[in-house]
Amino acid sequence: MSTPDASGSISQADLIRLLEVARAWLDSPPGQMLLAAERQVMRDTLPTCFGQHLVQYGLAPGLLDEERVVLRNHWQVDLINGSQAIPVEEGHWPFAPQSLDVVVLHHGLDFCLAPRTLLREACQAVRAGGHMLIFGFNPWSAWGLSHFAGRDWFSEAGFVSPSRLIDWLELLGFVVEKRVDGCYRPPLRSQRWLDRLQRLERLSGRHRIPGGGFYFLVARRQMLGATPSRERSMAFPALNLPPLVAGSRRAQKRNSR
């Protein structure tokens, strides 16, 4: 499978093809390494989140299958119309404002047309005191070298820097409570070499070095000193989902702006 041409612009159709390529890559040794590390992070984090309604969006639709019992209601929203996912446009989610307790963006900002638009849409659905759980690829890592060197689908993924993302979250009324880094080994295709570098993973994780291939942010929506009144309406104000419309963006490294 090939990725869209990095020299042109990316349309909605190109973005969906890019997402399909990246999802196929998840079956490779580095992809399985990534999923295993991120699932462990979720197992450690979700029990600290409270509420009933959770929505997941992003790269791996099955990321939270093992954690369905943590919150009562769990929905998946996706750019691709699947059997278990609600198809959405990244800038128009079918949830009422402040109706969700937890939103998980699993590399959603790395695979979108407009990261700030997607983040704003996701954040406005989170209630006061609720959580945003965000996974992102770290541009300042061995994985970021593949991004800047133009290797495979890595060159077209967003790789939004964690410092920039923290600034965006603060502007949207969130405070970042925790950051976790993981996957310090480079995304090598050889399982043998990944096994040989396990010591690097253990040492880097033990000392919490901020240079992993992915970062994970736990952000809470600030309550501004008041106890919010919970909306009595349904999380879905309407089931007339907006159509997927074409969009475009320039294919450029977002951290170069």
Automatic annotation (TrEMBL):
Gene3D superfamilies, per the entry: Vaccinia Virus protein VP39
Gene Ontology biological process terms, A to Z: methylation
Pfam families in the cross-refs: Methyltransf_11
Keywords: Methyltransferase, Transferase
Source species, domain of life: Bacteria
GO molecular function: S-adenosylmethionine-dependent methyltransferase activity
InterPro entries: Methyltransf_11, SAM-dependent_MTases_sf
Transmembrane segments: none
Residue ranges of every copy of the Methyltransferase type domain listed in the record: 92-134
Annotated protein name in UniProt: Methyltransferase domain-containing protein
